[in-house]
Amino acid sequence: MSAQAQPAQALAPAPAPAVAHRRHAALRRSARWLAAAYLLALALIAFWPAPVDRGAHGTIASVLTGLHAHGVPGWVNYALVEFTANIALFLPVGLLGVVLLGSARWWMAVLAGFAASSLIELGQLVFLPARFATPLDVLANTIGAALGALLALTLLAAVTARSPASPSPSRLHRR
User: For 3-41, what is each residue's pLDDT tens digit?
Assistant: First the structure.
């Protein structure tokens, strides 16, 4: 049958909710693959027998010394760099968690970050004597998961606001 002979409905674009649903489904599929890759990388970082920053410690300390010589305050130190790195490491937990679980379950992404961080620190304490398990790492990682969830909620709200005819992302993720 030629394109001209097809009914006009077949040529009309899909309704906005159907398009939005397909986009959200594609986003969740991509997020699952990204989450798998991220979790593998996180496991390698978290359970590497030696601290992963051991080789970079001298370089980071030298950069900080140079920054301090140029007026950067002394409170910008190695501990702050490490704390900030732990926050950044767990941003994907919150971000991907909200995408995969839905915006209504944002708190589960933060809880997952806290639980994963607590298990990592416990594992380091029990099985990796060269690693340093600290409650500050759990705090930083949980903050990272919370900031990642906030970022995801903000991005989803902005995308949803641009397409008002689409259903909310939280309704799409419920089963």
Answer: 555 555 555 554 566 776 777 788 889 999 999 999 999
When divided into structural domains, the chain yields a total of 1
What is the Cα–Cα distance from 85 to 106, expressed in whole angstroms? Answer: 22
CB 93 within 8 A of CB 21: no
If you count them, how many residues does the chain have? 175
The secondary structure of 78-112 as a DSSP string is HHHHHHHHHHHHHHHHHHHHHHHH-GGGHHHHHHH
Residue 56, domain member (yes or no): yes
How many Å apart are CA 142 and CA 113, to the nearest integer? 5
Residue 37 to residue 52: CA distance in whole angstroms: 18
Domain carrying residue 45: 26-161
Residue 98 in any domain: the answer is: yes
Three-state SS at 129? coil
CB of 17 closer than 8 Å to CB of 167: yes
